[in-house]
Amino acid sequence: MRRIVAALTLLAVALVAGGALADWLWLLGLGAWVLIVAFMIDMIHRP
């Protein structure tokens, strides 16, 4: 589960960085939602 959270967090960082560089708000929003999902998975599946 830790690998999934790490992968989602890295994906979110890449999406937010790409959205900021390209000035695309939809990409920033998608990155924010991916980050929210990663943190929700981390909170729910914490041992």
Question: Can you offer a commentary on this structure?
Answer:
- This protein has 47 residues and is mainly α.
- The protein has two helices and no strands.
- It is elongated.
- The mean pLDDT is 93.
Low-pLDDT stretches are none
What is the string of SSEs from the N terminus onward? Answer: HH
Q: What is the approximate shape?
A: elongated
Fraction of residues in H or I helices: over 70%
Major pleated sheet? none
What structural class is derived from the secondary structure elements?
A: mainly alpha
Mean pLDDT: 93
What would you report as the Rg, rounded to the nearest angstrom?
Answer: 11 Å
- Report the strand count: 0
Put simply, the count of helices is: 2
- Beta percentage is under 5%
N- and C-termini, Cα separation = 10 Å
